[in-house]
Specification:
single chain; 105 residues; mainly alpha; Arc Repressor Mutant, subunit A; two-stranded antiparallel ribbon; 47% helix; 8% strand
Amino acid sequence: METMTLAGKTLTLDADGNLADRNQWNEDVARELAAQEGIPELTAQHWAVINYMRQVFDKEGDAPSIRRLTKESGVDTKTLYQLFPKGPAKRAAKIAGLPKPKGCI
């Protein structure tokens, strides 16, 4: 498995480049992952999506799809694409320290 160092921690990545061990995640790691994804600052709306994704993953073992995000996170589709351009569910999952959602290509 591939590794990277962020926020002073050596992190293990899965085949998609997401964290292989979600327990290595913290908010500092999230900020650095976001910066790598071209998102210089995580706003309250970013955190709402990230925290929602982590809650769903904790309950169900999979990150929510884009459809579910727009219905249940309190952030509409247009805003999701502004917050996490070019694949909001996939990018938000990565920043949240989760595997790529099963519905993402």
